[in-house]
Amino acid sequence: MTVPESGNDHHLETAHLQGDLVGRSVRGGAVTLVAQGMKVVLQFGAIVILARLLTPGDFGLFAMVAAFLVVLELLKDLGLSTATVQRADITHAQVSTLFWLNCGLGVAVAAVTAALAPVFAWFFGEPELLYLTPVVALAFLFTGLAAQHLALLRRQMRFGAVAAVQLGSEAAGLTAAVIAALYGLGFWSLVIQRIAWAVVMAAAGWVVCGWRPSAPGPLRDVRRLVAFGGNTTGAMVIGALSGNLDKVLIGWTWGVASLGLFERAQKILQQPIQNLNTPLATVALPALSRLVDRPESYRGFYTGMVQRLTMLMAPVTALSVAAAGPVVEVLLGQQWMGAAPILAWMGVAIVWLPLTYSLSWLYMSQDRAPEMLRASLISSAIGIVAIVAGVPFGATGVAVSFAASLILVKCPILFWLVGRRGPVAMRDFYRILAAPIIATVAAAGAIWAVRGFTAVDTLPPAAALACFGVLACVVALLVYGGNPDCRRMLGGLLRVSDCFGGKTART
Which residue of 30, 50, 268, 284 has the smallest Cβ count within 10 Å? Predict the structure, then answer.
């Protein structure tokens, strides 16, 4: 269906946002956080249920393909949706051309994924991948259809609409997976989850966003947009390749069971960060893109958002390190206890991850895509060396090398690279990290002390974990209470406008 350009212009305009940029960020961010809270409940519920219905081998088998799906999903988008959000001025004809490019890329990536099925089956020595891979590739046909619609919603800062689409598609996928698992479909439950998610995402994107494409225009009219998207995608693809190499090598070297344990431990740790990072990223990129000419407001908006996220991660980090066994037993069950040491070692680095995730906001909002690509190359090289060094020692060895390389090598280099110019300097990152790191160490120490000198571990696992969680939060709050900046941040957590940089963005 196509419509005249004049009927779509209001989906592209952003001038009306400038007068209430902070207000829109606040309201949209609040709605998104509520939706994200519901998403957290759904996802952790699914983790608990699916871990008891499926085996580590089921998750490991799907993870072998999923490691490549992350990269292929980026190639399908090619950064074109980010270009639509970031550009100050864009026309209906240009967005239409980008839409058709996304659709074509979706078909191409689906075909390539299906064609790679024999390669995956041979490489991992798992014949089931010959059938699993072509079926899961069908999801790409649907995700390409909604890429520009969701980008236009973000461009218009309609964060509530974006949250509704994401929550609905996530709920549909998780529900489908649980039902399939209850019917004994094994690893096919995870395939069904991805396809259901993609179908609902596409349908909801079209319903919620009223924009409709016209016929594609000349490629020369979108050359700069494609170039921007290409640089952005290049950086993300490199990061995704290095970020998923651990799963590829563990699956190849140690098999589906070890990979399943590693993947679930990683999922437990990444879930809280991703669920907090996603709504913040949805708010941050369009807001920062429009604050780039106001350095103090830009810096205040960014540091305010990220510091609150790292503060929230401190108790999670402490629990992961000092109470990994109860965490695994409660969330996954006894058959997954082999994931506990993996969780503990990976957990050491969790408080650092929100900062590394947010660096792309700075590069993209400042139109520094080529620099982001170079930084990704450096980051990936460090990550690859660490993974290769850890693989001979199994999944736990990879977890140890991941944490050590991130804290000691990768973060210092990445902070220096992004802070060389722009409103956010290298010292700002360490100011953000100081109190959360102290809180993490103190909370982990308190948990170890309680476990060592009391009989709390004799309680039912859920009760023990609840005690550890309360203790970690109390200790973290005591640490934050002794820091004036953190006290101000904690007060901001009770005021939604400050949570999303409202106060600092008005300076």
Answer: 30
